[in-house]
Design goal:
about 260 residues; alpha/beta
């Protein structure tokens, strides 16, 4: 790939890295990443992937910007209140990097559309805020053979992992077998979240997505990283595939996405 002068200037700090270089930057520009949710995690994730030059970014979200979002969802601004989140996300991404093609999916991810949407991308990053969607994304990525970088936040804590069960790694269900009962675990709307925590975990997600796309370093497949924001402490826990996992185990009982149908 031949870079324009402006691209050489824009991506100079990547190109200087011997682990990335021009070849790696060209790879990023040819890559396609799907981000689930344009909220607290999706905001920094999308902005950093756009700045890095990931050539095609998909963003799926059916919500509209609310004033209460702006404490943490930095891809949106006050003037976006009331607008679909995917619209303000496209605006912000285009402002950061016109090299990037943005595909907005203004709809809710569901069993009926998940595999079709996911199939068009090289990698998926989940920044959703509810357990049903996290399990749906995990299952759809497994059936589609896509790598999933998943993160979650609540109050002052966060966690992140990469799931490559299609390559013999563990999946989300190997750690969390099934969604908790409704009301068992509060949402951010119920329990609150420190806004900057979303930036910390979303930035970690972006780093892991870029590493996966470039084939660099040691990824988080087989690990769960837990961040305690109040203690400024990280724990990295080894996770193995569960042979009794209902999705990717030795005798799976989940054969398709029909388990997620309403």
């Amino acid at each position: 790939m031949t870079f324009s002068e402006s691209q050489i200037n824009r991506y100079a700090r990547h190109i200087l890295l011997k682990e990335v270089g021009g070849e790696g930057q060209a790879k990023l520009l040819a890559s396609k990443a799907l981000v689930i949710g344009a909220g607290g995690l999706g905001s920094p994730l999308l902005l950093y992937l756009a700045a890095a030059g990931v050539g095609t970014l998909g963003v799926i979200d059916d919500d509209r910007v609310d004033l209460s979002n702006l404490q943490r969802q930095i891809i949106h601004v006050t003037g976006d209140v009331g607008r679909p989140k995917v619209e303000s996300a496209v605006r912000a991404i285009n402002a950061v990097n016109p090299d990037v093609s943005v595909i907005p999916h203004q709809e809710r991810l569901c069993a009926a559309n998940a595999r079709e949407i996911i199939s068009g991308y090289d990698i998926v990053a989940d920044g959703s805020d509810n357990f049903p969607t996290r399990f749906l994304v995990n299952d759809a990525c497994y059936f589609s053979g896509k790598t999933l970088v998943s993160a979650a936040i609540l109050r002052f804590d966060g966690q992140i992992a990469t799931f490559k069960a299609h390559q013999s790694g563990p999946c989300y269900r190997c750690i969390f077998r099934e969604p908790p009962a409704p009301g068992q675990i509060p949402t951010c709307a119920e329990a609150g979240v420190l806004g900057a925590l979303c930036g910390a975990l979303g930035s970690l997600q972006a780093t892991e997505v870029l590493k996966e796309l470039l084939g660099l370093g040691e990824g988080l497949s087989g690990y769960l990283v837990i961040y305690d924001g109040l203690a400024a402490a990280f724990r990295k826990i080894k996770v193995k595939p569960d042979p009794e996992c209902p999705l990717c185990g030795d005798a799976p009982t989940i054969k398709d996405l029909s388990i997620h149908l309403d």
